[in-house]
Structures are given as structure tokens and as C-alpha cells.
Fold:
Amino acid sequence: MAEYKKVLVVRLSALGDVAMTVPQVYSVCRAYPDTTFVMLTQKVASSLFVNHPANLQLYVAQIYDRHKGIVGIWRLAHELNALDIDAVVDLHDVMRTHFLRFLLRFMGKPIHIIDKGRIGKKLLTARHNKRMVQLKTSSERYAEVFARMGLPYAPQFDSLYGAERGNPETFAHLSSPKQAGEKWIGIAPFAKHEGKIYPIDLMEKVVALLSQQKDTRIFLFGAGEHEAKILGAWRDKYEHVTSLADRRNGFPVELALISHLDVMVSMDSANMHLAALTHVPVVSIWGATHRYAGFMGYGVSTQLIVETDLPCRPCSVFGNKPCHRGDYACLRNILPQTIVERVLQTIG
Structure:
């Protein structure tokens, strides 16, 4: 078995992708306490690593500032080289990390790269002659990289908070304490791409129906002016609804609150993965994308998926391609009552 003093782990991409690394990075850290692991990621994603193992260090890549472009990546490589790392694990494998690892390899660092299974994903999302098979999950692909470099491990992750929940004082400015018998429902209706977003008019019906339930409080998750405007309108219109989109709360705050939810309703988006990190049941809604591509949240139950069976699904790995039909029937054909029923079944 290989021995390393310090290993660099690279994942610079979108929030949900970084969130999927957390259970694996924590697990490998716990399996090899004498090795220091340096997680290279963007600033916004670095705050996801709550209660991390003592042998995990975070290094922020300022890709829009000092580490921008070819010169910036050159500067970043020299900064990382100065950390005396023994090996590099690239869990991203895109153009930016191609150049970064080229420089680090030139500096004598062994490189280990994720197999993203691009051919399988292309066949899965093909318009004709689709190959509908479950591909390896991101968690499995991450674990494979570590195993190939001589660091195999068994999963050692249940929640960012272990057997507990986040400290309620962390989010006391957002909500009064949870009362005995009260059910907390999180709803995160947005995603980066249209092919993942359940139609807003239908999601409002979900909120309206759930707000009528006794002893229930709904928390709406979103970010940015556009989302805050929509969620703020729902908050004002329906009872027992709180919007978290009108301020920047930070992930330590929102993760602590999420850990107290009884269920999260989410698209195939970052919030599914955030809920998964706190071991909260997720009713996940899938449209243009499909769990077969391997991006299901860590430990999220496939039994709680809400989706429609159409021959064109999935048409995209990330939900960023235009709808072939032009009507996003994969999402619009899902009835609000179906989502509500799944939520009520989950919270009992």
C-alpha cells in the first residue's frame, strides 16, 4: 500500500459536484489519519467542508482573480508545489485542471485522474439508440481514483454532524426553534439549467398544498434577486412559509438548518446534495437528466424520486441542452399532487 505524507485533491467545479466529494474525501481522510489531504476548490464551495477531519486542509483557488487564465494557473501550480505534496488527485478532469496537472507533473508530482465515463454518458443521452443502463456513481468514481493510487477505503460518512444535527443557534436569526411534533419541509425549486427546473407555476401549487398541512413549516431555498423575488411572493402569499433567498446566509448556517428538516424537495441540483450531506430524506424531481448518469445524491433514496418515463429521457447529462420536444413534458407532466403525496409519505 502506498504511503503519502500530503495529497492534493482537486475539484473546482459547480457546487453540487464539490458537495459530492465531501463524503469520499472525509472517508479517505479518516482511513489514513497520518496523511494530510489538501482540498483545492473555489471559495464558495470551501465552506461546505463543515466539521472536517483534522488531516484535511482547504486551499482556495481564486480562478477569477490571481489564478485566472494561463498565468494564474502557472502561479497556482507554483503555490501548490511549495506545499510539498506527494501526489495529485484530479477529481475534475477539465481543461483548467489539465493544464494544472501538466505543470505539477513537470514539477515531479505523480498524477491520478478520475475516469468520468464520458462514452457511457454519451450513449445514455443519445437521441436515438439510447443505452439505458446505470453508470457508476460519482462516489464510486472518486473512490476508484484513491484505490488506484494505493489508498482504498470503506465509506466512513453519515452526516456532516455525525449522529447529531446542526446547532440551532447557528440559524436562530432565521427561524424560531422547532416545536415538538412540528414537521419542517425544505423546498429548493431552482437549478442552473431549465431542463432541471420543475415549472414554477406548478411548484407554487406544491407550496400551496403543503402550507395547508397542520403543524408544518416550509423553508424555501434559493439565491439571487430573481429567485428571491419569486420565493418572497410565495412567503407573503402562504402561511407557515419562510424564504431564505433574500439574504446571503452562508453554507454553515443553511446546512445547520437543513439538518433539522424532515424532508427536502429538490431538483437534480446542489440542494439535493446539501441535504444528503446532512442525512435528510430528499424527494428529488428529475426532468431532462436521469439518475443513471451517476449524479444521485450520496445516500439519497431512489424510492423518493419523482419523474416521468419518456423515450427521450435523459436528453442531457447536465440539463443544459434544449428540449427536443420543445415543451419539457418530462417536467410539466408531473402533477403537483404527486410531489405532495411523496412528501407526506416521507414525513409520515
